[in-house]
Structures are given as C-alpha cells and as structure tokens.
Amino acid sequence: MLTKNPNPAHLAIAECEERLGKQGRKVTIITQNIDELHRRAGSKNLLEIHGSLFKTRCMMCGHEEANYKSPICAALEGRGAPDPETHDAQIPVEQLPRCEHRGCNGLLRPAVVWFGETLDSDILTHAEKALDSCDLCLVVGTSSVVYPAAMFAPQVAARGVPVAEFNMENTPATERFKFHFHGPCGTTLPPALARHESEPN
C-alpha cells in the first residue's frame, strides 16, 4: 500500500475541497477506503469510516496511533500474502507487535473495521451530520452494496438533494440518483470537479 499513489480522482477531490473551502464552502469526504490515498492527495475534511491501514489499535487499552512501518514488526517480514491453505502463520505470540503506550504491552492490530465489527459511532455521527446538511452528494467508485455506507447517498437523494454517481458500472442505487457518469473515476471526475468559469479565482 505504501507504494500506491493517489489517482487523478483523489487529486481532483482534494483540489475541489481546497478551492471551495476558499469560497467559504465545505466539502466532506466520507470514504470506506483504508488506504489513506485521499489524505495523501491533500484532502483535509476526511471521515474514514472503515479506519486506516496505517494506524494501529491496541487490543487491550484501545490506544490508536499512526504506524507506517512495513512490516510493523520483524516477525511479519515476508508474510504479507499468506498461502490460502495455511492454517497457522506460526508466529510466536511474544513476537507479535505490542503497544508501547504507557507500558501497556497489549497486542496491536490494524485500526480498521473488519467484517462483523461495529463502525465507530463518532465517525458515523459526523458522517450523518455532513449528509443531513449537504446540498450535493457525489458517489465515487463504489459498489453501493456495503452497509451502512450504501444507504448514505440514497437517503440524501430521497431528500431531493442532487446525487451524482461516478462509476464503471451501474450499481443497485444508480436509478435513485439524478446523474450517473459512466467510466473510470480518474477520467470522469476531474473535469466534473474542475473550476467553473462562474467561480471566483
């Protein structure tokens, strides 16, 4: 993941956020992605509802912090893509990454939401506030099948707010939206978010 770079869609969103911010308008990016590419593109007002692969969370004390080490401990070196038939990584538990916060020593895990886990209620509350007050919603490069995020844009559309979907294919929610831009987001989104001639410089 550290070798990946933001694509033109990430960069267009970040530029749009900065430009509209200077006009006194607010852009909130709500993402399910855990790759931090929006952050690396320059987005500031970002809600990562599934967390970040570049943060760790202690399973004992709950402390979270940024962690860009790859791998995060020596015992994980060369174990990035295990064989699907492997039942046990055979790493002694004492060699797994540990929390150093206030001498806790609890096991660390990625600060991401795994299937079956609950999303952070504070982040969801911030997302709901942004969605309740938005005057335009863009849905970019998602299947619209992972809940609760899959219901965000349809709820906005139900209020009569214009929703534009940018995607390679139609999704289960496409018919609920006013606009659909078919194609790669890195191609379709930048011109849609470019400064309009009516905007101030």
Task: Write up what this structure looks like.
The protein contains 5 helices and 8 strands; from the N terminus they run αβαββββαβαββα. With 201 residues, it is an alpha/beta fold. Strand 3 and strand 4 (64-66) form a beta hairpin. It is elongated, with a radius of gyration of 20 Å.
Précis, in short:
This protein has 201 residues and is of the alpha/beta class. The chain is built from 5 helices and 8 strands, in the order H-E-H-E-E-E-E-H-E-H-E-E-H.
Query: How many angstroms separate the termini?
Result: 36 Å
Average predicted local confidence, pLDDT: 90
- In terms of DSSP E residues, the strand content is 15-25%
How much helix is in the residues?
10-25%
Tally of alpha and pi helices: 5
What's the shape? elongated
Spans of at least 5 consecutive residues with low confidence: none
Briefly note the structural class of the backbone.
Answer: alpha/beta
The SSE order reads HEHEEEEHEHEEH
What is the number of E strands?
8
Strand count, sense and closure of the main sheet? 3 strands, antiparallel
Radius of gyration: 20 Å
- Strands side by side in the biggest sheet: 4-3-5
